[in-house]
């Protein structure tokens, strides 16, 4: 009997090693990883450059605490600020949830009032970040959560307009995911992003862009909000930042850069020096040319998916953050894919979330879609057999 809390449903694999796009099991099988550790491994498994930097740091030290400054902390924070094109300061955390906790804590210090989030936003599983997450099923067992949080329908322009008209002066902050991660890969509309900025200018609330999953080149821009003309006050990042190790950051921009004074926030472990070494390499590899190539790969991936021999899918997302909404039993699809050597991640019940390594080749995309198409056909067949064989009521 396992002594691990049963909060996950892992694949039935004993991993021997992982490299690039592939995970290898101890029984000699190879599996194509379509979601890169849930978007953590931007350069695939066991990247040599990242590994080398981490080993070099580990040979010096693995932890020094916040009583000492690792030189990579300055390098990484300076680069994150540079990519915003603005001025600011960085607070390092250990995860996306912690980065969003820091954002929320800053808001509480600066503004009093309502916090607006959107349905199917996902900002974390701590009590505070769960309060901002738009999934009733996740929140229900842990209520009551934080008060004064309002959820609006995602991309419902009229609902946002009407709410702001009635409550604009009461809004302290708005949290937005420009591309839903766990929420099904929906993409923010330009109409809503324009309204958010107009309301922000009128009422002065703080805008938080959660880039934990969609940031760091994933959508074909360094930050996903850069597609939509948003000017956030706070940007949160994590996942891919640490090169495979836990590292998150809350980026406080312009007028609120110095929101936290001495001892007003902190972390024992963050920023971990080994994770910072990985982050330094990750950011160095994310050149403008590389990110432009990610955008082209995303277009190619979507086009290849659209040519599949099935009209029963809906393709969503941006860059190499792609969702395919299917009308087949998700469990059957995941099982068929596993048998075909493809590891799938399914969110919001029926959306396959593709988060491949950003350095995936065009040939790798072809292989991934071919295996997915084969698995989808097999799942349709199994679904039909189950319906035929099921007893009639």
UniProtKB/TrEMBL annotation:
Q: Name one GO molecular function term.
A: identical protein binding
Pfam families tied to this protein: Aminotran_3 (PF00202)
Names of required cofactors: pyridoxal 5'-phosphate
Sorted alphabetically, which keywords does the UniProt record give? Aminotransferase, Pyridoxal phosphate, Transferase
Which PANTHER family does this entry report, sorted A to Z? ACETYLORNITHINE AMINOTRANSFERASE, MITOCHONDRIAL, AMINOTRANSFERASE CLASS III
UniProt record similarity statement: Belongs to the class-III pyridoxal-phosphate-dependent aminotransferase family.
Q: What is this protein called?
A: Aminotransferase class III
Organism whose genome encodes this protein: Pseudothermotoga hypogea DSM 11164 = NBRC 106472
């Amino acid at each position: 009997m396992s002594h691990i809390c049963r909060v996950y449903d892992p694949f039935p694999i004993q991993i021997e090693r992982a490299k690039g796009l592939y995970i290898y099991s101890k029984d000699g099988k190879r599996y194509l990883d379509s979601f890169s550790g849930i978007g953590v491994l931007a350069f695939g498994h066991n990247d040599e450059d990242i590994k080398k930097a981490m080993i070099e740091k580990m040979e010096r030290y693995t932890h020094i605490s916040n009583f000492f400054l690792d030189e990579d902390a300055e390098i990484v924070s300076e680069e994150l600020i540079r990519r915003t094109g603005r001025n600011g300061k960085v607070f390092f955390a250990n995860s996306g949830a912690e980065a969003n906790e820091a954002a929320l804590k800053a808001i509480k210090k600066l503004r009093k009032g309502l916090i607006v989030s959107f349905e199917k936003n996902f900002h974390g599983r701590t009590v505070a970040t769960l309060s901002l997450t738009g999934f009733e099923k996740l929140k229900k067992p842990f209520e009551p959560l934080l008060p004064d949080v309002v959820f609006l329908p995602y991309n419902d322009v009229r609902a946002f307009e009407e709410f702001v008209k009635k409550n604009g002066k009461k809004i302290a902050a708005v949290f937005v995911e420009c591309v839903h991660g766990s929420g099904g890969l929906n993409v923010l509309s330009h109409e809503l992003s324009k309204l958010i900025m107009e309301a922000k200018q009128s009422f002065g609330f703080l805008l938080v862009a959660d880039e934990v999953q969609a940031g760091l080149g994933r959508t074909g821009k360094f930050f996903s909000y850069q597609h939509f003309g948003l000017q956030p006050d706070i940007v949160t990042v994590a996942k891919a930042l640490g090169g495979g190790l836990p590292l998150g950051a809350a980026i406080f921009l312009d007028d609120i850069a110095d929101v936290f004074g001495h001892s007003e926030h902190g972390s024992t472990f963050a920023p971990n020096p080994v994770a910072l070494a990985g982050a330094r390499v990750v950011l160095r590899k994310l050149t403008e040319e590389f990110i432009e190539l990610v955008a082209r790969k995303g277009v190619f991936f979507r086009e290849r998916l659209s040519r599949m021999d099935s009209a029963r899918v809906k393709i969503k997302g941006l860059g190499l953050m792609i969702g395919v909404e299917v009308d087949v039993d998700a469990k059957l699809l995941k099982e068929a894919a596993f048998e075909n050597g493809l590891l799938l991640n399914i969110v919001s019940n029926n959306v396959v979330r593709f988060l491949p390594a950003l350095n995936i080749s065009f040939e790798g995309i072809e292989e991934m879609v071919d295996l997915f198409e084969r698995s989808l056909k097999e799942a349709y067949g199994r679904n039909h057999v189950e319906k035929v064989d099921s007893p009639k009521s």
